[in-house]
Amino acid sequence: MVDVSIGELADRARTVAELAGVLRQLRRRHARHTAEPPLTYRRLAGHTGWSHGVIGDYLSGVSLAPTHRFDVLVRLLGATPAEQGALATARDRVEEGRLAGAGESAPPVPRQLPGAVPDFVGRTEEMAALDRAVTASAKQAVVPIVALAGPAGAGKTALAVQWAHRTARRFPGGQLYAVLGDADPAAVTRQFLVALGVSADRLPTGTAGLIGRYRSLLAHRRTLIVLDDATRADQIRPLVPGTAGSAVVVTGRTPLIGLVAAEGAVAVAVAGLPPAEGRRLLAARLGNRAVGADPAVVDELVASCSGLPGPLTVLASRALARPRLPLAALAAKVHGAR
């Protein structure tokens, strides 16, 4: 129960003095757990290389420790990983309150989305599913997570980016975007923190500190996070904000069942386009005249690509590169290659 009280004290801290009080409570608890006298300023200085006076200022509330020093200090005082996150959030909240009180400039608003895809067509049902997920989660006061899953070339990224641009006004805190692949979530968190205005030399060193700082910065912002090409659910969890208001859209080739089961993510399948929308895509790239001249051939091309926007776009590029080649000849080449 003592551990819970540290978290509760951290949640209540709003000033430097209150946060210093939590650190002193943590120091006393550490002494009880180790059956030793409380860590002296001298011993803490020996562990950290900081001066006695600086450590005294941190524990008495005279000054607020920088992020990396704060993380070191709470670990030395025996904070659990969960408490480290709560304390990191409290520290950033106190700092933000001081900045607001001093009238300093607001933090930057990231705009990291790629450009919208030209000639985007269709996906009305998928767009509606994204809208419903965000609206329903807002009513439930939870962070919506939508997982767009489908094969390569299905246009998952295009769909996510198109929807994100369309709904950007709902997220005045900005948009964060990252291609995950096999990336370490901690590395992505560092990138996001820099985009949110944290200088590189003040980034927390540990994963728990990074996540705590990230979530604290997003706690009072409505930010859209787009995570592209995810391969595992555990890549996503650290990047989900801890408080309602923001939203997360994930793309991947696998359904990420663990994310759906454990985090309540909404799964949206992204398959090939229906024939009519496949024709619209080719018409947008090749022109209505070329597509309308031989509808049967166009339908064959769409079917040969299973309606997937990626392969259809490649076919359109090949047709544009050889304008004298009839679409029927292109369809024959595609058929012969199958």
From TrEMBL:
InterPro entries: AAA_16, P-loop_NTPase. Pfam families: AAA_16 (PF13191), HTH_31 (PF13560). Residues 120-234 form the Orc1-like AAA ATPase domain. It comes from the Bacteria. One of its GO terms (molecular function) is ADP binding. This is Helix-turn-helix protein. It comes from Pseudosporangium ferrugineum. The lineage of its organism: Bacteria, Bacillati, Actinomycetota, Actinomycetes, Micromonosporales.
